[in-house]
Design brief:
Order of helices and strands: HHEEEEHEEH
Number of domains: 2
Shape: globular
Strand order of the largest sheet: 4-3-2-1-5-6
Number of helices: 4
Helix content: 25-40%
Strand content: 25-35%
Structural class: alpha+beta
Number of strands: 6
Length: 204
């Protein structure tokens, strides 16, 4: 009786027609249904608090780049035994990729961007990139020794439409089924460049 009475007393705070509860009065079936209805509403509201926050509808994606715009992504990955840097430019369903390599014959290490190639993206790759960007945008920091830094800029001509900067140190960006990491995309473009080398220029 104590637990049920507590529920009905809770209803009194919200009901315009409060239910009178006393030791000499039994709770009617209608009162009980009313109390259970409020319990259900509270339970559903609690579930909503546990759901992930909906993504900002303006987050950058690979699948919704406006016509005439370019999504530029600067990617740096550093760890105990590696340092990689690459640049990706997405436009009209294709991607161009540059990989930063040390300049030759330099006493001080300097990096230059070397064009690796260009690739027409297939549907699975675009969807995989959307999953990856959503993972970054969720703000998963992590505690891995490998740290990835991702700078994303949507431009139209010289006009910047939106910028995002993310840091990922989870080492788990590729755990979600269907995700396409930037390292994997780089490999896809490199494999395509090896399979379809540019013809040698006349005189080479």
């Amino acid at each position: 009786m104590g637990e049920t009475a507590d529920c009905v007393l809770f209803v009194q705070e919200f009901d315009d027609d409060p239910v009178t509860v006393g030791p000499a009065r039994d709770i009617s079936l209608l009162d009980a249904r009313h109390a259970i209805g409020w319990q259900m509403r509270i339970f559903l509201a609690s579930l909503l608090l546990l759901l992930p926050v909906a993504a900002d509808e303006n987050w950058l994606t690979a699948s919704a780049i406006p016509e005439g715009a370019t999504l530029k992504v600067e990617y740096t990955s550093s760890g105990c035994f590696h340092h990689e840097r690459a640049r990706f430019e997405f436009r009209n369903g294709s991607v161009k990729v540059w990989k930063y390599v040390p300049k030759e014959d330099q006493e001080k290490i300097e990096w230059e961007a070397k064009l690796i190639g260009e690739k027409k993206l297939v549907k699975a790759e675009i969807e995989g990139l959307d999953l990856l960007f959503a993972y970054y945008q969720a703000g998963n920091r992590g505690g891995c020794t490998t740290v990835d830094r991702i700078g994303m800029t949507l431009v139209e001509g010289k006009r910047v439409l939106r910028e995002e900067n993310h840091v990922d140190a989870t080492c788990h960006a590729d755990d979600r089924p269907g995700v396409l990491t930037l390292d994997e995309l780089l490999s896809h473009v490199e494999e395509g460049a090896l399979a379809n080398p540019k013809p040698a220029a006349a005189g080479d």
